[in-house]
Structure formats: structure tokens, C-alpha cells
Amino acid sequence: MCATFWNQNQWFKLTQNLQHLKIEKTKSYHKRFHLLQAAYWILNIYAIYVWSDIQGVAGFFEQYFFDLVLFYYQFFYMCVSVVVTQLLKQKYESICQMLKNQKLKIRVLKTEDEAEKCVQKLEEYVKLLKETVNIFNQIFGWPVLLNVFNSSFVTLDYLDDLCKNSFEYTRAQYIGVIISNIITFAFCLVSFCFISVIICF
């Protein structure tokens, strides 16, 4: 958690660079981001209800509070990383458009000084984007690997509960446990693809 969100210098530099790399048409991800957060909490409130019914509210939070924080951090991390990735993708697309426009512009320009200024401007833009991508990799690189390991372990744990009723729950409790585990399982494995699809379109 510290590695991703508490490195203020890198976050400041990343946001500053993204602001400098302005493009004409930027998609807004605010509504989709908040919609995903709401969906996450609605589904997790159901899972909390199921487990609180089995273990009691105090017992549930005593045993699973850290897991709740960890799963939300993982989900929030994926949402933020996908949004920033999409912003970087838009910047790269704008560079391609700028290259086409500059190519046409340079052909029309009569003096070498004007052509050189156009090329320098484009070069600065590309350097700034390269620096931004490097900062993104420093912020989000290691957490990706750690999320893969964590998701693998959680998946194995929840698949065990899905396949057999180890704790001899009642039929109603077991159905609730299955639904709850499927929700958690989905957020661990499928959420990155799901988030990518929702935010990209």
C-alpha cells in the first residue's frame, strides 16, 4: 500500500506530467469510477451480511476486517491503474495524430527555423510522455506482481469453500457462502478485465 499511494513525489510528478500532456478530446472516467466503487460496496455488503449471519458481526469483523481492507485496496488500485493506463493510451494516440499533423505542417513551412521549432516541440512532448510512463511503472510495477500472488492464494482458498461444505453450514448458509465467495473470487480474478472493459468504453 505504501509503495503505491504514499510516494508523494512520484504521484506529484505523474499528475503534473499528465496535466502538461494536454490533448483536445479527453474521456472522463469519473462517473464510471464511482459506479464501480458503488457496485463493489453493494456486492460486498451482501458478503458481509452473509458472513455476519454465520459468525456474528463482532466475530466477522474480528476475523475478516484486514481482508476487507486488503480487498478494497486491491480493487481501488486496479481502478486507478486502469484509469491512468487509459490516460497514457490517449496521450500516445495524440502523439500519433500530432506526428501526422506536424509532417503536413513541416512540408508547408518555408523556413528551416519554423520546421525545427515544430520538431523540438514534438520531441519535448515525447520525452515528457516517456518520463510519465517510467513514473507509472515505478508506482504500479511491483504491486501488479503482488496482486497476482495474492489473487492466486485467495482463489485457491475460496475454491475450496465452493467445492465442499467443510464447516457444515446449513443449506441456506452454504448458498450464501457460495454466492459470497463467487463475488470475492470475481473481484480477485475477473475484476481487472471487467474494470478495463467498463472504463474503456
Automatic annotation (TrEMBL):
Keywords: Membrane, Transmembrane, Transmembrane helix. The keyword Transmembrane applies. The chain crosses the membrane at residues 33-51, 71-88, 174-199. It comes from the Eukaryota. This is Gustatory receptor.
